[in-house]
Amino acid sequence: MGWALGVGRRLLAELKRVAAARSGSWGAAVDTSRFHAAYATAEAGLRAARAWANDVWQDVEQSLDQGRSPSTEQDTLIRLVLDHTTSTVYEVGRTVHRWAGSAAIRRGPVDRFLRDLGTGAQHMTSSPVVLQNCGKWLSGARPDARWSFLDLT
After folding, report:
1. Which CATH number is 93's domain given?
2. Res. 29: pLDDT tops 90
3. Can you say how many angstroms the Cα of residue 142 is from the centroid of all Cα atoms in its chain?
4. At what angle are helices 128-138 and 72-99 packed, to 10 degrees?
5. Residue 65 needs a FRET pair 20 to 30 A away by CA distance; which of 11, 58, 85, 117 works?
6. Total number of domains constituting the chain
7. How far is it, in rounded angstroms, from Cα 121 to Cα 6?
């Protein structure tokens, strides 16, 4: 999760750098209100994902500090926030890809981080099955189930 948040932050920093370099040139897409709204939306998504991740981890740390193992709800939220963070940062990457123009396809940091993000988003911890299992427990369909690695049993 920290990896995804770091990649998302770096991608937005790189997009900001690209935008600064292109701003003021003829027909610069980065000077449009659509770009500004897309950048703000990506920033909000990244910050919200980070805040929720911190909230979930803080709750788990409290349990551990009190000598308790994480509850099934906490285990579920850990998996859910991981999936949510990864998908949110993937959307940030799509925004960067859209607005960075040719910087997104040339060798360099944007290209490298987009490739890393595409690979990381395919990790099994962000699989549809994990998300479905989170939904099963949270919706009450499997209230007595417990997590065994990435499976709800």
Report:
1. 1.20.140.10
2. yes
3. 27
4. 130
5. 85
6. 1
7. 14
Assigned domain for 78 exists: yes
Q: For residue 127, is pLDDT > 90?
A: no
Scanning 66-103, the segments in alpha helix (DSSP H) are: 72-99
Residue with tokens 């579920």: 76
Structural domain including 63 reads 2-23+30-125
Q: Label the pairing between strands 147-148 and 151-152.
A: antiparallel
Token pair of 20 as six digits: 């600064």
Burial call 98-123: b when 16+ CB within 10 Å, e when fewer? ebbbebbeeeeebbebbebbeebbee
| Model pTM score | 0.92
Q: For the residues 53-67, what does the mean pLDDT come to?
A: 98
Say if 100 falls within a structural domain. yes
Give the mean pLDDT of the chain: 95
CA–CA separation, 79 and 65 (whole Å)? 20
